[in-house]
Amino acid sequence: MSIPTHPLGMTPEDREQLLKWVRARTTPQRVAFRARICLLAAEGLSNTAIAAKLNASRPTVLLWRKRYEEEGAQSLTRDAPHGPSARRVPKETAEAIVEATRHGTTPAGKPWSTRTLAEAFGVSNATISRIWKAAGVRPESDLQPKK
Fold this sequence. Notes:
Number of helices: 8
Distance between the termini: 80 Å
Helix content: 55-70%
Shape: rod-shaped
Order of helices and strands: HHHHHHHH
Largest sheet: none
Number of strands: 0
Structural class: mainly alpha
Radius of gyration: 26 Å
């Protein structure tokens, strides 16, 4: 059973804009989907009914309804920021990796590889590759004897 909710307040201009987005072939699908949610909410449908009708989750309906109420129609065109990347490595660690690559060897006396460095510093080998690329380090050529 759906809990009755208040209809979403919408100006005639906003309603027209949302209808344009829904009808336009060039509107990104995520924007048209968000517009449909708000249009149905303005008609007075419950959040659960909107979710069922659009094959969405109730939290998604609540999110876009709230975003529209707080920021208006243009808020439907913007994605929320997702925060900093989880792939951040402290600057000191990155510098230590570059230093070890340029001037050190493994305990076995061999040149460092992405996997051996990753194991030694507790990061992934992809992280080592990104650090090498950002620092301009090319171990395979840096370790070749100079002529």
